[in-house]
Amino acid sequence: MARRGSGVKNRRMREVRLSDGIIALSPLRLDDAQAHLAGEDEPLVRWLSGGRGTREGVEAYIRYCREQWESAGPLRAFGIRAGADETLAGTIDLRFAAEGLDPGQVNVAYGLYPNWRGRGLATRAVLLVSRYAAREGGKEAVIRVEPANAASAAVARRAGFLPGKHTHGEGGTRLDWYVRDLSIETW
């Protein structure tokens, strides 16, 4: 699980669905709220959200995410869906603008629910959203990880991200950056 980072042309949302044949990514929906709450555990709260969710809070966040899709805002939040029934297995989001990012950099943040970890799904999701970010004009993908979050750093490395600089987030927390060039040639 990687930390989430902090006016694009106005256009109507098109329903985006990305898939590699094993997982599918699609925008979060209100009916994902209960599955998300059921999947929250201590690592997800610690590394990704910073606090336990409530039904109202999760639904408000999903509505915000939908508004971002509708307005082509800087946030693109996806549900990671697995299995034949495309069960919600986690979330992944892109931020095309966030504090500390240079123009063209895109922040990638992800988290899987406990029953879905250890299967390579996060790496697959990172690769899918990185390709999407490149098509949407991103030049470099960035994953910012607290040093103690070894699992998230391993996902970044498996997805071809290289260690970069170190910064500090809110409260002075050290963040290790992993970066990947999104040039078409690298895919």
TrEMBL record:
GO cellular component: a single term: cytoplasm
The entry's keywords: Transferase
Domain (N-acetyltransferase): residue spans on this chain: 23-185
Transferase is among the record's keywords: yes
Key word Transmembrane helix present: no
An MF annotation (GO) of this entry: protein N-terminal-serine acetyltransferase activity
PROSITE patterns in the record: GNAT
PANTHER family for the chain: ACETYLTRANSFERASE, RIBOSOMAL-PROTEIN-SERINE ACETYLTRANSFERASE
Name of this chain's protein: Protein N-acetyltransferase, RimJ/RimL family
Organism: Actinacidiphila glaucinigra
